[in-house]
């Protein structure tokens, strides 16, 4: 059954992990998301990521240091997507009205474009980089973690204001970028 405002998302996910002597771990992930919110050529977004982890505690030079329970260094990078718009924003919309002129005693209905569509709307994409060190002391009674991160989002999904003479107050578009970085 059709429900106005309904949307559909379909996702596929693949992940591979390789560990060498429980010291070096490589992880690769690939995600493919489809969203009915975008037009045919932009329905699918492709989002890869990868990570490398070094379990330093498992190295020979730290095996005999008993007060260090855990010590790991991790580096990761990846892309994620966002489709946080209302359904059908990529399509032009029409509305109807019966308020208007009366001809021969009848008030005629009218249909008019109520929203500008953009078939080029696509996924917002965030690229994220992380560098972390984690560990523990005294049989993990004391644990710590420090993480540096940097993210950049591009193709932001924004309702861009338009000039009034167009007849529309705004239109949805991919424009701009933003970034964020910090330490946790």
Write the layout of secondary structure elements.
Layout: E1 9-20, E2 24-35, E3 44-55, H1 60-63, E4 68-82, E5 93-97, E6 102-103, E7 106-107, E8 110-115, E9 124-137, E10 142-154, E11 157-161, E12 170-174, E13 177-183
Antiparallel strand pairs: 1-2, 2-3, 3-4, 4-9, 5-8, 6-7, 9-10, 10-13, 11-12
Architecture overview:
There is one protein chain. Helix content is 2%, strand content 60%. The chain is built from 1 helix and 13 strands. It starts with 8 loop residues before the first strand and ends with a strand.
Main attributes of the structure:
mainly beta, 13 strands, 2% helix, elongated
Q: Characterize the largest beta sheet: strand count, sense, and whether it forms a barrel.
A: 7 strands, antiparallel
How many angstroms separate the termini?
A: 47 Å
Order of helices and strands: EEEHEEEEEEEEEE
The percentage helix is under 10%
How do you describe this structure in short?
This protein is mainly β. It is 2% helix and 60% strand. A hairpin with a 2-residue loop joins β6 (102-103) and β7 (106-107).
């Amino acid at each position: 059954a059709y429900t106005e405002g309904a949307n559909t998302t379909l996702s596929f996910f693949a992940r591979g992990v390789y560990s060498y002597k429980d010291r070096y771990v490589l992880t690769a992930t690939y995600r493919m998301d489809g969203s009915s919110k975008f037009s045919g050529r932009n329905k699918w977004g492709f989002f890869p990521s990868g990570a490398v982890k070094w379990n330093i505690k498992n190295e020979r030079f730290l095996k005999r240091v008993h007060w260090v329970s855990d010590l790991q260094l991790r580096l990761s990078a990846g892309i994620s997507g966002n489709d946080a718009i209302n359904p059908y924003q990529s399509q032009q919309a029409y509305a109807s009205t019966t308020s208007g002129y009366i001809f021969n005693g009848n008030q005629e209905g009218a249909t008019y474009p109520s929203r500008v569509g953009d078939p080029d709307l696509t996924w917002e994409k965030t690229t994220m980089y992380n560098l972390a060190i984690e560990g523990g002391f005294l049989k993990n009674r004391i644990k710590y973690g420090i993480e540096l991160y940097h993210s950049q989002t591009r193709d932001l999904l924004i309702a861009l204001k338009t000039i009034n003479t167009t007849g529309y107050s705004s239109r949805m578009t991919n424009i701009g970028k933003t970034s964020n970085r910090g330490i946790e």
